[in-house]
Amino acid sequence: MTAQVQAAETLEDVLLELRACRVCRDEPRYLPPLPHEPRPVIQASVTARLCIASQAPGLRVHASGRPFTDASGVRLRSWLGMGEDVFYDESKVAIVPMGHCFPGYDAHGGDLPPRRECAPLWRSRVFTALPQLELILVVGRYAQAWHLGPKAGAKLSETVADWRAILAAPRMPRVLPLPHPSWRNNGWLRRNTWFEEELLPVLRAEVARLVR
Ligand code: SF4
Description:
Elements: H1 11-19, H2 23-26, E1 50-53, H3 59-64, H4 71-80, H5 84-87, E2 93-95, H6 118-128, E3 135-139, H7 141-148, H8 156-161, H9 163-168, E4 174-178, H10 186-191, H11 194-211
Parallel strand pairs: 1-2, 1-3, 3-4
Helix pairs in contact: 1-6
């Protein structure tokens, strides 16, 4: 009897299918359906050693189709000590949001959370197809809950404050939690000066090594 071996899915296969995904508009598991045409945003390549696990595109990113083409991206790149040339080099940096499409606005004009359909559908397939990742920067509480599970604190502050232990944990890829670079976290950044003084220098050294 001949054993049948299932070929591993390539990243190219996954990206092709992901970019055509219309589940949240056409067959949503959670109501209401996405009220606009989905435009899945992702940056990935099999050679990337660094991954930014982010939240969900805002309207500007939905319009551009590229991750972090907004004020949050400017701040994130300054945290990383990285120019756009490296940040958008998919052979070096993967950017995988928890929800790949702009989720729309809530009643107060804020962005809705990432669509709940997205991570269970795509996340393990995408990460299985990224074999060279060494470090995942988990940006914001949704990505932290997914990638850290019970090790994520009840609040984002607790999780980020525990960054040394999380980074030192024996797993591959390693994980480093960050707050979302949105202006909404300006108050948090002012109150937690250790983030810039202690965490950012370590982040920049790790990142520089991985994108060299
Ligand atoms: S948010 Fe995710 S699951 Fe929903 S349509 Fe976009 S890619 Fe598909």
